[in-house]
Amino acid sequence: MEAIEQANRAAVGRMLEADPVLIDVVPACEAIPALADGRKILHAGPPIEWDRMCGPMRGAIAGIAVFEGWSAGLDEATAMAAEGAFEFHPNHHFGAVGPMTGMTTRSQPVMVVENRTFANRAYCTVNEGLGKVMRFGGNDAQVLKRLAWLRDVAGPLLAKALRECGGIPLKSLIARGLSMGDEMHQRNVACSGLLLRELAPALARTSQDVQLLAELLSFMGGNDQFFLNVGMATGKAIMDPVRGIECSSIVTAMSRNGTDFGIRVSGTGDTWFIAPVEMPEGLYFPGFTETDSNPDMGDSTIVETIGLGGFAMGAAPAVAGFVGAGAASEAGNYTRAMTEIGYGENPEWTIPALDYLGVPTGIDIRLVVETGIAPTINTGIAHKEPGIGQIGAGVVRAPMDCFKQALRAFADEMGVSGQ
Amino acid sequence: MEAIEQANRAAVGRMLEADPVLIDVVPACEAIPALADGRKILHAGPPIEWDRMCGPMRGAIAGIAVFEGWSAGLDEATAMAAEGAFEFHPNHHFGAVGPMTGMTTRSQPVMVVENRTFANRAYCTVNEGLGKVMRFGGNDAQVLKRLAWLRDVAGPLLAKALRECGGIPLKSLIARGLSMGDEMHQRNVACSGLLLRELAPALARTSQDVQLLAELLSFMGGNDQFFLNVGMATGKAIMDPVRGIECSSIVTAMSRNGTDFGIRVSGTGDTWFIAPVEMPEGLYFPGFTETDSNPDMGDSTIVETIGLGGFAMGAAPAVAGFVGAGAASEAGNYTRAMTEIGYGENPEWTIPALDYLGVPTGIDIRLVVETGIAPTINTGIAHKEPGIGQIGAGVVRAPMDCFKQALRAFADEMGVSGQ
Fold this sequence. Notes:
2 copies of one chain form a homodimer.
Chain A (H helix, E strand, L loop, with lengths): L1 H16 L2 E8 H4 L8 E4 L11 H13 L6 H9 L4 E4 L18 E7 L4 E6 L15 H25 L2 E2 L1 H8 L10 H18 L3 H12 L4 H14 L11 E7 L2 E6 L7 E4 L4 E4 L12 E2 L3 H4 L11 H6 L8 H9 L2 E10 L5 E7 L1 H7 L4 E7 L7 E8 L2 H15 L5
Parallel strand pairs in A: 2-3
Antiparallel strand pairs in A: 1-4, 1-6, 4-5, 7-8, 7-11, 8-9, 10-15, 12-13, 14-15
């Protein structure tokens, strides 16, 4: 139907016209004023209440409640959560995204990505690094200490530097990262380095304490996934202006909370289409197996929504081995498969090894259902128990049922019978 | 012959056992005491005198003579050079290497790479960046001002940081760069970034002046080829312990001065086998054509000698387009061709996109002559006139005649008749 074609052209047009710039780091309650009052906890994925939350999500909630001073300890926090002492909302409902458990609360620093074309902003916390971290359900003293350092040291230093240099444009930086082996989900070493080198002079100019500066440079330089959260905020900033385009069948968000997988589609507004989340297939760190693993989790699938992650696997042959996705030389096959469900290709985000094929851009729910090809997602794997952390990395498919439900609702909206 | 096999095994073994570490930056006359006396100028390539030097080499010599205070201006320097006022030697004769014209003189800062396995050291100046620079024959006030800044600001800051952190191990850093699209000759953006992020904390800790620190971070972060000179010193540090192994037919150096191409072979000691240098085939910057170009130049072919550059083209599909070497998706073919003339593969320097094929390592002159496959070199192209600079990038072959001469000499050495 011509109306759908036109709407999808407009939707993908907005994606391609986006101009995301990392401009600031501020306390979450400044970026999202609603967080200032009450005990609000934003989490990854579609809406969910405590009784349905998975282990690592519960672990992260207990940890963040202690961090925010709402509970004296993890046990008390867990009891309070079960009694309804905290208010839970998806990050996506407040212009934010968060990896894995995706905790966002009032005092955490969030990075601000402004989409200069459409003047909207999106937020994501600062990546904590690897190992035992809150996004994978970690919640012990070491995890909380790192969060405090991010709040008290890293956040303010990054903020000063970003304000001084006028922000870091992300579209060209991501383009560069694609030529350097990153797919921006499970591999961000190039973009993390590019961001560091862009920001380092401003950090030096605005830093009063060289010891703290050295700490921050060391933290950023030692964290190959630092850019993940920047890429996620970029994804949210790109996709928010695509929401609510009448007749568009383009996916605006894919997200999971460890229990459910949810998608949103432009033409059907802010409705979540939800199905049980799948279990990633992947490789486990020594000492862990798939029996330890939690189902797929996090808002990080926003990067696939914009054509990165599993969609850009061809840019990152080294990722294929890391996530157990077969031979490195065949990584391009994942990208080629995703072109089947993408509305178009991004001419500015290209993959040299595929002779500069643009990443598949704009997931069309009609194509997903027609072809039976679900979006490929590169993901981290959390232990299913609270307090443990990451145990592997893998590949997972978005559940087909989300797309089928969405297509039925979309057809209703269009006044035609569903397929 | 078994003696040759054994010698080559030993030669390539030494290459693979090498442990290059960037440990310091010092004035060249400290690293190479012979430079302290007289007006000595080290240049790229095999030995050459003024009357046979190409335009950009002459331009660089005039510039460096002014920089060192030996001449009041470029014309005077040129006249002095013609009258024999300067002493010319190859970098290779003093444990050094230099890109393109390869000027090394007493007061320039040189980076020190120590091969910890064999306790030898190699030196290379600090990369000047792109555009009009001395290595491409540039010699105006702006070029000399940058050299002064490298001497007075960058060199001392880098030295302090390297001493404080105990040096940066380069073997693993290069391995990482190969998974990030670098081949370490015409593309060094990944390794430059990895080096910056490794060094930044120490730079912060040892820097007294945040303004100068910011200048250095900005210079390093803005120079995608910063690592080239580090990679070259790495190559020299790796290959020097391979020199002079009786019965070994492995190439220990390939180098060119813009007039001649020279190679050295382990079993024939320090003899240069020389042939006229070839003209690169490549792509030119706007406004320039092949009629402007100077024949191939520089000691940078030391990176091909250790299996990088043209030998690692498969790691860097984006380079293929930049140097005009055909489709990006076929970059791997260059690497595969080089396995025909390489004695072995490097298990620690692998190329993900080629399913972790190790880079071809140890150029065997017997295989070069037998197969008729000359080493592929990725190179920058200089304008043939002095004072202009880089005008493009391309691919060039090492002249087959060098290898034929070397094989004859090698056969004589072995007491068998030449092929």
